[in-house]
Each structure stands twice: as structure tokens, then as C-alpha cells.
Amino acid sequence: MKSEKITNGADPTSTERRWPYRDACAAAHALELLGERWTLLVMRELMPGPRRFSDLRAGLPGISANVLTQRLDWLEEAGVIVRRELAPPSGARVYELTEWGREAEPIFRVVGRWGSRSPFHDPTASFSTASLMLSLRTMFEPERADGFAGRIGFRLGREALLAVVAEGGIEVAAGSVEGADAVLIGEPRAVAATIYGGQSLETLEAAGVLAVEGDRETARRFTTFFPLPEKAPLPAG
Predict the structure, then answer these.
(1) Which of 5, 9, 38, 135 is deepest in the core (most CB within 10 A)?
(2) DSSP structural state of residue 51
(3) Which CATH architecture fits 2-107?
(4) Domain 121-222, what fold?
């Protein structure tokens, strides 16, 4: 009995390992697919588009290469992601979400807004390009953008995002910033500092962590469209 238990526990194909809840609830099954540590964050990093293994590690500084490999293998087996090779001359191997995998984006929006209300949330921790893209989609408040129409680009190291605000809505996607009315240049955490942390563009420019190109007033107004929800109260002690 003892050896059988050890074998089952180490076998990643065992029924207990794959489907531990034995619950017909679809939410329970989703947790069986995505509930292990790092799995959802790996998916988050793939939301902007295909990523190389090294890109995923850069966006998830706390993950080990071994754990990342395990999570990618599991997500591929589950049909959430696929791996492919880019066309020549690159030929790099990349991972990307399947159509079904991309349908998980609302999970990140709901969980992100809920988590932002935590009194223990640390906004100074690492912040990736994928995090910025999803947070802009999540925290956008249409009423604050009333009458505004503009294109805001973000150059974030080797990556770029373009946010388009029009008719009270926002679209944010990875890609070229060509044609943007204003462009913010810096690391995602510096951009988050002005959008969510209340630091002025001028303060961040003076610190050398952010640069602004194009229409500064458009950039400044854009940063006001993303109010954070109030923090949840701590239990009375």
C-alpha cells in the first residue's frame, strides 16, 4: 500500500493528480485546469500574443525554468495553449493561447479588480507588459473619458502597446505605436506609477524612468481614466 501511494502521488497522469475534486461543477473543473500555482500567470503573460520561453520568464521573475516548463506542458496538453515555430528568418519557438484559452481574459479582469481592493496588495511589485494591458482594459472608467478620443502608445523595452479610446470605450493591444497622439516610454512599472500611483509625468521624467513623446495633454488626461476601487476594510481587531 505504501509504495502504491508513492507511485500515484508522483505520477502526473494519475486521476488524482489531474482531476482531484471529482466534482461536476464547471468552476471546479476550471480550477483543476488552472488552479496550480503560476498556471494563471503563465496564461496572463500570453494574453498580448505569442511569447518565447525567455519572454515568459522575464515577465514572471519568481518562476523557475523547471516549473515554467511543467506549466507550459500542462496547458498545452489541456488545449489552452499551443507551441509553434515562427517563420524564417527567426525560427524561434513560441507559445500562444488557443482561441479557447483567450476566452479566459474575463477571469483576469474580475480577479484583478477584486484583488486591487485588498489592503495587502503591493502595487510596487513587479509589473509586466501583459499586466499593464489587462489592467488598462479592466480599470478603464468610460465616464472619465467622456468626449475624449485618442491613441496612446507605450514603448516598454522590446515590447509596445497601443491604447485607442473612442466613444467611451477602450481597446488595448500589442503592436506598433505608429500614429499615436502620445507615447509613454519606460518600464511597465513606471507607467503604472503615473496611471495608478498618482505620480505626475514630470516627476517620473525628472527621475529618468519615463519619457513622453507627442501631445502631453493627451497623455496626461489619459492617465486619469483608470481609478482604482476603494480598499476593502480590515477586520475589526
Answers:
(1) 135
(2) B
(3) Orthogonal Bundle (1.10)
(4) Nonspecific Lipid-transfer Protein; Chain A (3.30.1050)
> How many whole angstroms separate alpha carbon 58 and alpha carbon 187?
13
What pTM does this model have?
0.87
Cell of 233: 476594510
Which long-range contacts does 73-78 make (Cβ < 8 Å, 24+ apart)?
74/36, 74/39, 75/39, 75/42, 75/43, 75/101, 78/33
d(CA 126, CA 189): 7
Q: Is residue 103 pLDDT above 90, yes or no? A: yes
Comparing CA positions, the residue from 106, 223, 103, 105 lying closest to residue 165 is: 223
Instruction: Calculate the average pLDDT of the chain.
Output: 91
Q: How many CA atoms lie within 13 A of 161 on its CB side?
A: 28
* pLDDT for the residue 5: 36
| SS3 labels along 7-50 | HHHHCCCCHHHHCCCCCCCHHHHHHHHHCCCCHHHHHHHHCCCC
Give ranges for CATH 3.30.1050.10 in the chain. 121-222
